[in-house]
Amino acid sequence: MDRLNGIFEAINAEGFSESTLLLIDKYVNDIKNGTEDFPRFNLPEHAGFSKGGAPLIGASVIACYATASLTASRHAEGCEGSPANWEIDELQERLIEQWARVAIDTAICELSAIGNKGGN
């Protein structure tokens, strides 16, 4: 969970910066390769989860962050209990979309840079 908390801290501090994307990608690859566990699942669930591929694993990391962030925010405001499901759903959707857009934009820029090097 420490590694996941490190990712949460990076998202909180930097948003989906290049360094945060690298942290997420490394964690996703380690889960896919079986060298890291995602704490929300038992072993049989984890086996299926790790076969789901990078987009599913990455989105799950972001969804987990959204839930933790919203819960912590509500508790900091003095609210008791968990946030409503619709609040969690909306934040998860928004953050997963932000992450996906930044990740795609970053990949496109990297591919363009590789293409430009090959043409020169």
What would you note in describing this structure?
The structure is a single chain. By secondary structure, the protein is mainly α. Helices cover 78% and strands 0% of the residues. The chain is built from five helices and no strands. Helix 1 runs antiparallel to helix 2, helix 1 (2-14) crosses helix 4 and helix 4 packs across helix 5 (85-119). The longest helix is centred in the last third of the chain and has 35 residues, at 85-119.
Summarize this structure as a short list of keywords or feature phrases:
120 residues
| Helix and strand sequence | HHHHH
The SS-based structural class is mainly alpha
Number of helices: 5
Oligomer state equals single chain
For the record, give the distance between the C-alpha atoms at the N and C termini, rounded to a whole number. 45 Å
Rg (CA only): 16 Å
List how many beta strands DSSP finds. 0
Helix content: over 70%
Form type: globular
What average pLDDT do the residues reach?
87
Measured by DSSP, the beta-strand proportion falls in under 5%
Q: What low-confidence regions span 5 or more consecutive residues with pLDDT below 50?
A: none
Largest sheet: none
Summarize it.
The protein is mainly alpha-helical and 120 residues long.
Secondary structure blueprint with pairings:
Blueprint: H1 2-14, H2 18-32, H3 43-50, H4 54-76, H5 85-119
